[in-house]
Amino acid sequence: MTTLPIWAVYAVSFGSPSLVFLGLFITRRGAREQRLGAVELEARSQREEAMRTLRWACEQAASPNPKLAAVGVETIRELQLSQRLAPEDMRLVLTAAGVLLRPALEAYRLDHDVEVVLGVDEPPDDEGRA
Q: Does the predicted model carry a pTM greater than 0.90?
């Protein structure tokens, strides 16, 4: 019968579970980093898609064809309402919409004698309501 030295018994008894725990810890940490990378990649791809859509919508909105222009304006409006955009991207969409729509709004204002205000950040007053 062979016997193991006492240090070998302790090394196997405590070393194996310790190595398993260390391997599990490293694997879980790597999986977490991989999930964070996937979330960042998804956010970046959504932003890129929104910017491509904005570029296309601006081209359509600037078209002399009224139907294409209406499609472009509606697409910009939907981008503005979507939850996919970050606040800095939303400012870009609003700026694009303002630049594209300003001539049409000015022409409407001149024809109908109304005041058009773009980019108002304050909510309307409730003074006129009962």
A: no
